[in-house]
Design brief:
6-stranded mixed beta sheet, 163 residues, Rossmann fold, alpha/beta, globular
Length: 163
């Protein structure tokens, strides 16, 4: 049995590869107060908001992975979901398949990472792992504890804090 932690980045600004908003910065500072002290490895998404989260948590990543969080960003334009690519191009949400394309990699990824690893991710990461874990509360601005029974490939998620 091992335990890992996931922080989903907090409120972000609008647009291409956004940073955290002022509110998101404050939310991240609140999450930091609840972060366990025994973190020994950090894996971060590749977007500005993931890196800013790492800095605010004083948890500089050992590695970066698009599986945990991409530079692309989901936003709404005229009440329609769009994806902003890293260069600022917006595409219809239905035309973006990266998350589904990577779906088969999520479970083996979680099984192989070291105990007491912190993942700095986005809400889409939580949504994708919900597909094989019986958990239905993916939130932004949250800290999760994930217990993993590697032998039986069983996962238990607990939300520790929601900013």
């Amino acid at each position: 049995m091992k335990t890992i932690y996931i922080v989903t980045h907090c409120e972000k600004n609008f647009g291409k590869n956004p940073n955290l908003s002022k509110k998101g910065i404050e939310q991240t500072r609140e999450i930091k107060k609840h972060l366990p002290q025994d973190i020994n490895f950090v894996i971060s998404g590749c977007g500005n908001r993931h890196l800013e989260t790492a800095l605010l948590l004083s948890a500089w990543p050992n590695i970066f992975s698009s599986l945990v969080g991409e530079c692309e960003s989901l936003d709404l334009i005229d009440n329609k979901k769009v994806i902003f690519l890293a260069n600022g191009t917006d595409i219809p949400f239905d035309s973006f398949s990266s998350l589904e394309d990577m779906a088969p990699a999520y479970k083996p990824f979680l099984l192989k990472i070291e105990p007491n690893t912190l993942l700095i991710a986005g809400r889409p990461f939580m949504i994708m792992i919900e597909k094989f874990i019986n958990y239905q509360d993916a939130s932004s601005a949250a800290l999760y504890k994930v217990n993993i029974d590697e032998k039986n490939e069983k996962f238990t998620i607990t939300k520790i804090f929601q900013a």
